[in-house]
Amino acid sequence: MNERMNTTLRIAPDVKLGRGVVMHAFVNLYGCEIGDGVKIGTFVEIQRGARIGNRCKISSHTFICDGVRIEDEVFVGHNVTFINDLYPRATAGNGALQTEEDWTCVPTVIKRGASIGSSATILCGVTIGEHALIGAGSVVTKDVPPFAVVAGNPARLIRMQKKDAERREADMSEPISHPDIPPERKLEPFLVR
Ligand SMILES: CC(C)(COP(=O)(O)OP(=O)(O)OC[C@H]1O[C@@H](n2cnc3c(N)ncnc32)[C@H](O)[C@@H]1OP(=O)(O)O)[C@@H](O)C(=O)NCCC(=O)NCCS
Questions:
Q1: Catalytic annotation present for 131
Q2: If you placed Cys at 149, which of 22, 106, 133, 141 could pair as Cys (CB 3.0 to 4.6 Å)?
């Protein structure tokens, strides 16, 4: 990171930053944990208490709040919003601004390998399963099963993806063919054991 770039980042001293993290301009991190090899786009804010695993991609303009745990190898699209309070209020009963004591943080878990499409909103208290895929602009209100593709507001199941092992098997049984690839360059299926 060069000197000039550095001035546009705000990384609080209490951030636990992994090795090889790449950050773009105007990133604001405080009190959070970021794993190894994570890439963070511009205008991302990650709050105190949020935890990001290894090798995740957090795209620009995304907001990750306290209570969110993101496991390894998760893709978070642009402008994704997480939530940690279902019934937010500006003030407490006495009319003063709410403090930490006046509300309960509801946790959210994004499991390994999941992907969240751009502009999705993830309500709190949900678990998004391993390798699940959330459509762009979705509002996720319930748990998402592993390998599910969901979309819409509220997000509904569109289809299930093949699990990794099934996917590999399908790839190996189908020769790769494309009209733009001359026949001599078409690859034969191969087996890796
Ligand atoms: C959700 C998604 C993975 C579905 O892709 P797909 O499996 O190829 O699904 P299809 O395009 O065949 O659409 C299936 C149905 O879901 C609907 N649909 C697809 N994406 C949707 C979305 N984001 N929100 C609401 N409905 C959606 C389609 O209109 C279609 O409805 P129909 O059957 O009534 O016509 C994809 O559309 C998506 O949103 N990907 C995320 C992209 C993204 O945000 N990338 C971020 C970085 S660039």
A1: no
A2: 133
